[in-house]
Amino acid sequence: MAGSRFAYVKNFELPDRLLPGTFLVLRVDGHSFHRFSTEHGFSKPNDERALCLMDHAARDVMDEFKDIVLGFGESDEFSFVFRKSTSLYNRRHAKILSTVTSLFTSSYLFRWSTHFPETPLRYPPSFDGRIVLYPSEKEVQDYFAWRQADTHANNLYNTAFWALVQRGNQTTTEAHASLRGTMASQKHELLFSRFGINYNDLPSRYRKGSVLLREEDEASASLPGDDTSNVEQDQEHPCQGIHNANVAAPDEAPRETVPQISKQGDAKRDRKTRVSPTIVKVLHCDIIRADFWLARPDLLS
Ligand code: ATP
Ligand code: ATP
Ligand code: MG
Ligand code: MG
Ligand code: MG
Ligand code: MG
Ligand code: MG
């Protein structure tokens, strides 16, 4: 086929290699999830099942793409940062973006019935995706701080908005009008004085989003049956179905078993290079303050 007279069309494809030595931040976002969430009966302002499903899809992505060192999710979006030396697909932009976005989407569908056992899908959801390159750790840290600050602002607004609608008997138009121009402190005050809601008591998952990172799997050394100790979940709102589903294989494990003629010394080399198994953990912690990064000095290196 390569030698056919048609093969010249291949030359119209342009190289799209991403700048070497830079951090790749890939963000997926649900397409028209305002509608999707309404049509699938998401509870407002925060549907726990939907957030857990997003986390689950993100875990699947991180189990597949080992060069992702950190993920952050809120609402219908997830961001992933790849280590800056990644050579995934030769750093081809379209290949990386389309494959990761596609895997996230198919995993969202694959895991749907685990988190929404009673809710049939009415139509197939989709996600958009983009990659932004950042030159240093500072911009990457600020990027994640930006997304978490967005989580805070949106969640405070949405919590106040839905309190006015669901408990204050306002229409959605009235609720928007009530909140127009208000400062964060006024929304806190409104929630507390009118609805008895102390915003800071809401689950950390809602206020801080989900932080996914790799940690050594201590549980691989623990007793069989001790099955939830390895995943740090929000205890108030544990996610159904993702507790044990995603213990990652050792980093260097081949995806497919290709028959190979064994050579002397292989076993020894395997033992030497084998890294301990890692597991993708879900945290709902602050990533705006420096502490998160100071506690993990090697995360982005
Ligand atoms: P676009 O296609 O431009 O992204 P969108 O409708 O998806 O449009 P977003 O700004 O991405 O708009 O907002 C996502 C919307 O999805 C939220 O405003 C909210 O209505 C809904 N949503 C997402 N996740 C949840 C959830 N866990 N619980 C309740 N609603 C949710
Ligand atoms: P890449 O990720 O680079 O695309 P690939 O393994 O998908 O790698 P392709 O060049 O896209 O490689 O080829 C797709 C392969 O999938 C085919 O070579 C064939 O082995 C298999 N395949 C796809 N469709 C069918 C089919 N309908 N029946 C049998 N095999 C198929
Ligand atoms: Mg959007
Ligand atoms: Mg969206
Ligand atoms: Mg969004
Ligand atoms: Mg093909
Ligand atoms: Mg293919």
TrEMBL record:
Residues bound to Mg(2+) 2: D29, D76
Q: Where is the Thg1 C-terminal domain?
A: 138-289
- Give the family per the record: Belongs to the tRNA(His) guanylyltransferase family.
Give a single Pfam family match: Thg1
* Catalytic reaction annotation: a 5'-end ribonucleotide-tRNA(His) + GTP + ATP + H2O = a 5'-end phospho-guanosine-ribonucleotide-tRNA(His) + AMP + 2 diphosphate + H(+)
Region called Disordered, residue ranges? 217-236, 247-273
For this chain's record, the cofactor binding note is: Binds 2 magnesium ions per subunit.
Q: Which GO terms describe its biological process?
A: tRNA modification
Q: What is this protein called?
A: tRNA(His) guanylyltransferase
In which organism is this protein found?
Jaapia argillacea MUCL 33604
What cofactor does its activity depend on? Mg(2+)
Which positions fall inside the tRNAHis guanylyltransferase catalytic domain?
7-135
What does the UniProt record say this protein does? Adds a GMP to the 5'-end of tRNA(His) after transcription and RNase P cleavage.
Instruction: Identify which top EC class this enzyme belongs to.
Output: transferase
Binding-site residues, GTP: D29, G30, H31, S32, F33, H34, S75, D76
Which keywords label this protein? Answer: GTP-binding, Magnesium, Metal-binding, Nucleotide-binding, Nucleotidyltransferase, Transferase, tRNA processing
Against InterPro entries, the record matches this protein to: Thg1_C_dom (IPR025845), tRNAHis_GuaTrfase_cat (IPR024956), tRNAHis_GuaTrfase_Thg1 (IPR007537), tRNAHis_GuaTrfase_Thg1_sf (IPR038469)
Query: Key word Magnesium present in the record?
Result: yes
EC code: 2.7.7.79
**Gene Ontology molecular functions:** GTP binding; magnesium ion binding; tRNA guanylyltransferase activity
Tell me where on the tree of life, at the top rank, the source sits: Eukaryota
Give the binding site residues for Mg(2+) 1: D29, G30, D76
